[in-house]
User: Fold these one by one.
Assistant:
Number 1:
Amino acid sequence: MPTRKFIAFLRAINVGGHTVKMDRLRQLFEALKLGNVETFIASGNVIFDFPAKDARALELKIESHLKESLGYAVSTFLRTPEEIARVAAYQPFPAAPEDSTLFVGFLASSPSTEVQAKVAGCRTPIDEFHVHDREVYWLCHKRFSDSPFSGAKLEKALGMPTTLRNLTTVKKLAEKYTAKSP
């Protein structure tokens, strides 16, 4: 079976007192027989090759291994480079001011219509939200620290784990790995 490239977005890496060196993180992924393991910035982004057909089963295998090795739960969200390119290109807020910041929250599955409405209802004068497929987009019109909203509140509204990345990071991953994809 041919290998596929995956990008893993990990929750709870190098935040909240959970520090993991990138060399250690690479070793943990290599122990699972994943190939060409790389990390991208120290926020829990791991790129690797593996001949998996079932990405969700692979997510669960990685989560189990990381929990056993690190001693705490690490939600894992896999995407292919092509999926990341689509996420990076998607424009949920086409008229967003240049000084605002767009974050992408990765999810294991698409939320229901009811959950999407609940998330949209979390809008504040500073924050806007939009769910598309397995991602939630969070537009912050000021500094993130000025927002009354938080990642924990977003997870509560979603009813499921998520991990957030700045759209700039997502675009860099798309640029770097889409061209390299087998």
Number 2:
Amino acid sequence: MEFLDIYNGKGQYVGKKERELVHKDGDWHKTFHCWIIFKDENGNDCVILQKRSENKKSWAGFVDISAAGHLESGETMEDGLRELEEELGVKVEFNKLIDTGIRVCIEEFKEGTINHEFQNVFFLIDSRDIRDYKLQGEELSGILCVKIDDLLSLFSNEINEIISMGLIMDSYGNKVEGSYQITREKFIPTLDNYYYKVMILAKRILRNEKHFHI
């Protein structure tokens, strides 16, 4: 049984509760988000996205953040690093992450789920080859390397789809390199154009600009 720390609307700790009840009752809780970004050999700004496992309880098979997860009761934000290691095999010191603050998320797109999250959003600049990632089959079924400019065009409705290269897990657990079609409908729905804003932030970070916040 997994417990999460819960908070009031001011971000003040008020106790802990079983995870399923937190999402049923709409209690505020904390999550860790990390977006992996880099410039490729041709100078294109790129981001690593994950394709969620088809066995996930929520949003199975959807395209999502590079790595993310809930903070369990008693954990600190640094404990969120386990998501990078468990899902992608990335070991990194916490001070290598770029902190862009807290996104306040209210999401009720699935019946019976009231998701109120304080999402701590980080970026990691890491240019390793996509084939060097280790994929954790329980959490994700693949990863995609996508040009940020293509995603900006997608989220601004200039184009309707992207064909991206990636690694997809086959039924035997092997990583298979190939192409993958991405549309807006394959992303988890948001009210605040979260993915679009993240791509704008990513470009600013990769240009070494200052003053960025989610």
Number 3:
Amino acid sequence: MFPIDLPTAPPQEQPMMVALADQAPQQAAAKERIMGVCHAVPNAMAPEGARMEYVIDPSFSAQYYFSQYEHKTVQGAATVSVLQGPKHGALMLTTAANWASIAPGPYGEGNDTYAYFPDKGYIGNDRATILVDFGGQKVKVVYFFQSLDHPLGNTGDAEACAKTGFQWKISQDANGNPVLTAVAPPDTTGATLTNTSLSDWKKGDRFI
């Protein structure tokens, strides 16, 4: 009789692990901080004292996000990067050199502010996405611009942003994708551009 060769059993102190492919844990989708900001501007050169209407402050918006939704304060300088620019206008970084032609008063160094100017004659929606990074704490700020056919006055921005409010947290789906809702355009049926200064507003030469 010949002896039967049995396979060597693994030592008891070394347990055997078997993993099935369909049981492997799936990595959860990364969640981002994303906020929306409604910002209305007139499609005509605003008077000098009202040109702050064109200016946006991404760092301030990101600080609002942390304060409102995470109940914490972030401080210090932030790194601000434009991820996606507008399609119907220009997004200009404000500097000490061009600030005097945008808004009155002294320029705040290190503000990382931008000015949005819609293309001549464009009435409707536009959008830009800016990433703000406070030392690893990041927020994507999506600006929903509304270019209007009239000056904002005292209540124009509030009326344009009545459906969304000025700032809000953008939710995400199960895969981590942002669920964006575009801001409804203003009702411009039969509207005409009556601001005479608009004729001096040339694309690529935005009074800066």
